[in-house]
Amino acid sequence: MNRNHDNSWNVCSSERTFPIFSTIISKTYLSFAGGMKLRTVFKLMLCVLLGSAIGLAFNVMVSSNKSKEPKTITEGYGMKLTDASGEKVTRFFLDLSDTNEFNYTVHFTNHSRNDESFTLCLLLDYIKIPFKVPADPHTPVNEYKFSVANGASVSIPVRFSTESLSPDLHALAISVAANKDNPRDKQDKIKEHFGMIGRYTIKTSGKDEFSKTDVPDRSSYAVSKLPVRGIMINQQFENTDKFSPLPKIIHAKPNEKIKLAIRAGGFAGAKDYLAWLMIDDRQLPFPDGKPYWWFEAPPEKAALRQIEITAPEEPGRYEVYGYVMNSPWETMVELSGKVIGNRSSHKITIQVE
User: Fold this and answer.
1) In DSSP terms, which residues pair with 351 in a beta bridge?
2) Could you tell me the end-to-end alpha-carbon distance of the chain, in angstroms, rounded to an integer?
């Protein structure tokens, strides 16, 4: 997801990006086939695909472009904000020091070429929070489900109280993800283009900085030998430069422990990252009990970590996916010369039997 010249987030659809990769691969083959074995060429092709394609669903980049209207426009989806008076939001930094609530409208557009149903979630400091919508203005909801036809838009007023927030900066992630019950979804299909995220900073009062109670992880992982730019979740635990196919479906019993390998990072110019995991609409804790994994990694390198999650108790079909954000505590005030990005993993189906 890249930010456009109008200060917008831009999410690239993998369905329209792969033909470009095919051109790159064919040129690589023509250039090197004469001096390389076919197996080596195929390996190079896989590396090009892997380094470019992992996490295309949420490939967000915020650069130093100046703009008039921050909105998220993608080849598949679009998002922008307006404030309580209907004015378009013009920054990714939201100063709420003169009010005690977040009161904005999320405008979402579906250009995925399919009628789809979606779920809207909010994460404050990368922890999922309840919020209020007009359907039930007095009762907070943990997520909001809605449907949008292809080419249509929907406006969702969203509110939550900021009275109890500490007097410093807070990171807000607005997540819209396609639901697992869309007609075109299949259990055995790897889903890689299913929604988007917008990243904002909220100021309540006091300090113009984030107050962090922990430090980034620097030791619980290995540096991945596989070139990943974004986030990849699978069951390839060996730290090798050979690519293993992503799992389409994992069969499990109720409450069974499932081991997963997470490779995340690899952004140019990034030092620290923050990853979080979801199963359907529920945020998953990491083994240390924290709701996310904040870590540092060498430049343009990904971290490799093995984790264990618990399958749901009720039989059924579930979807696990994750996100990674670089520079997660960037204030978003002055973006000149900086690159802020986030990407998603592919969705993995877990069938509890």
Assistant:
1) 251, 317
2) 36
Longest dimension (CA), the chain: 69
| DSSP tag of 299 | T
Inform me whether the pLDDT recorded for 180 exceeds 90: no
Contacts of residue 150, defined as CB under 8 A and 6 or more positions apart, other chains included, come to 110, 111, 112, 113, 114, 115, 116
Residues 6+ apart with CB under 8 A from 14: 53, 56, 57, 192, 193
The residue assigned the tokens 């998603």 is 344
Residue range 39-51: mean pLDDT, rounded: 39
Q: How confident is the model at residue 305 (pLDDT cuts 50, 70, 90)?
A: very high
Q: Are 169 and 209 in contact (CB under 8 A)?
A: yes
Report whether 13 contacts 200 (CB < 8 A): no
Residue 172 pLDDT > 90: yes
- Residues 148, 79 contacting (CB under 8 angstroms): no
Rg (CA), the chain: 20
| Closest by CA position to 10, among listed 341, 344, 347 | 341
Residue with tokens 């404050």: 124
Q: Which two tokens stand for residue 196?
A: 């988007």
CA distance 31 to 33: 6
**Closest of 110, 55, 53, 13 to residue 321, by C-alpha:** 55
Residues 339/69, Cβ–Cβ less than 8 Å: no
Query: Has residue 10 got a pLDDT over 60?
Result: no
**Bridge partner list, 340:** 62
Is the separation of the CB atoms in 167 and 204 below 8 Å?
Answer: yes
Residue 36 has φ and ψ, to the nearest 5°, of -130, 150
Alpha helices (runs of H) in the chain, residue ranges in sequence order: 14-32, 38-53
Mean pLDDT value across residues 267-284: 94
Which pair of structure tokens corresponds to residue 312?
Answer: 């749901």
Q: Supply 89's token pair.
A: 């939001």
Cβ atoms of 277 and 328 within 8 Å: the answer is: no
